[in-house]
Design brief:
transport, two-stranded antiparallel ribbon, mainly alpha, transmembrane, 19 helices, Xan_ur_permease, xanthine transmembrane transporter activity, NCS2, 2 strands
Length: about 425
């Protein structure tokens, strides 16, 4: 393959994942009240870490690297937990990065035998967790569509109109295009929505003019990490769910590339994700996981050469040193960002539902597991003080909706599906 074709394909992969990559730091930075300088750093370091995480995974070594053409980015599964930790009065931003580092180390330690632990994370558990995360994020999207919580023009006609015009653009592109253009429909919506926002006077270009042309990244930009048990448990559960999701991507790519995977290959892949999270925590970025949209692009193009993904990773690392490009993403009007969030978070919810529907049709027990886990997880997110009177050791499991829902799903799955004989009769489906 010549250099021009490799470069073109690498840029396609970068564009396919770019909207997902930048949305995560923009959402989290906005929720934590970052200023434009902090937001620019957060976006830049996240883009760079996407590249580093990708390079670690494409490489195939003795201890790390799945050796498949896979692109990594920050998992949306981590967004809600990170915001919850960062906005908790008893925790804070340094606890976010302490928990990311600690969970990454835990993932690296358990990578070798995660195949044995994966039985505790069947689709009824992972589907419940992903659904809880998606539902918990919806208020963030809707608040931003209205202009951002606390904004003087909150829910103004211009904000709501701009948000829905952006959403319509995303839907039209997604409906009437195919292939690569369809894959970047959200990115197109963000660009067109920002241009419209500029004509409406809702874009401030000062972050771009204030940003430098080049900067060096620095570890612990937001402070030295601190380690909170609840935060670590939360991010470890997020990490395990991400590993289960990544396993599906690994096997999908192995099928495309005609490469059979064994337990050692999977362990190297899991270890790479853990290492990427540790490095991400040190440089105040995020945990990283495989991006499924790039799998579709690989299948569509038919190009399986890892050199293309190496170039994609290198481009992402290079962009991380260019703050002006990162600053461009911070000028996106909040309503435009909210519209993109609604589409992305809605896809997270439907992804969870897609995992749950087949297993709920299998048995009434699975339907009950999902019902209780999702209800309790979302309920704790909506009414966070419900378990405040419980002992501190117990509150580690109940103070966060993601953890509460995850633990509930795991325990109920063990109770209904792993202990004792399975029920032969299922009155819900009329079996005899």
């Amino acid at each position: 393959m010549n250099a021009f074709k490799s470069t073109t394909l690498a840029i396609q992969h970068l564009l396919a994942m770019y909207a997902g990559a930048i949305l995560v730091p923009l959402i989290i930075g906005d929720a934590l009240g970052f200023d434009s300088k902090q937001m620019t750093y957060l976006v830049a370091i996240d883009i760079m870490m996407c590249g580093i995480a990708t390079l670690l995974q494409v490489y195939s070594g003795k201890f790390i690297g799945i050796g498949l053409p896979v692109v990594l980015g920050c998992t949306f599964t981590a967004v809600s937990p990170i915001i919850a930790i960062g906005t908790n009065p008893e925790q804070g931003i340094t606890d976010i990065y302490g928990s990311i580092i600690a969970s990454g180390l835990i993932v690296m330690v358990i990578a070798g035998f995660f195949g044995k632990l994966v039985k505790f994370f069947p689709p009824v558990v992972t589907g419940s967790v992903v659904s809880i995360i998606g539902i918990s994020l919806l208020p963030v999207a809707l608040n931003n569509m209205a202009g951002g919580q606390g904004a003087e023009d909150f829910a103004s006609g211009s904000n709501v109109a701009l948000a829905f015009i952006t959403l319509v653009i995303i839907l039209v592109v997604y409906r009437f295009t195919t292939g690569f253009v369809r894959a970047i429909s959200i990115l197109i919506g963000l660009v067109v929505g920002t241009v419209l926002g500029a004509f409406m006077g809702k874009v401030d270009f000062s972050p771009v003019s204030d940003a430098g042309v080049f900067h060096m990244v620095q570890p612990f930009y937001f402070g030295m990490p601190t380690f909170d048990a609840t935060a670590i448990l939360t991010m470890t559960l997020v990490g395990m769910v991400s590993l289960v999701e990544s396993s599906g991507v690994y096997f999908a790519l192995s099928d495309i590339c005609n490469k059979k995977l064994d337990s050692k290959d999977l362990a190297r892949g899991y270890r790479s994700e853990g290492l990427a999270s540790v490095i991400g925590g040190i440089f105040n970025a995020f945990p990283y996981t495989t991006f499924s949209q790039n799998v579709g692009l690989t299948r569509m193009s038919g190009v399986k050469d890892r050199k293309v993904i190496y170039l994609t990773g290198a481009f992402l690392v290079l962009l991380g040193f260019l703050p002006k490009i990162a600053a461009l993403t911070t000028i996106i009007p909040i309503p435009v960002l909210g519209a993109a969030m609604l589409a992305m978070f809605g896809m997270v919810i439907t992804q969870g539902m897609g995992m749950l529907v087949p297993v709920m049709n299998e048995s009434a027990e699975n339907a009950m597991i999902a019902a209780i886990a999702v209800s309790l997880g979302v309920g704790v997110s909506v009414v966070p003080g419900i378990f405040d009177e419980l002992p501190e050791k117990v509150s580690i499991l109940t103070s966060n909706g993601i953890v509460c829902g995850s633990v509930t799903a795991i325990i109920l799955n063990i109770l209904f599906n792993m202990i004792g004989p399975k029920r032969k009769n299922d009155p819900m489906h009329g079996e005899i």
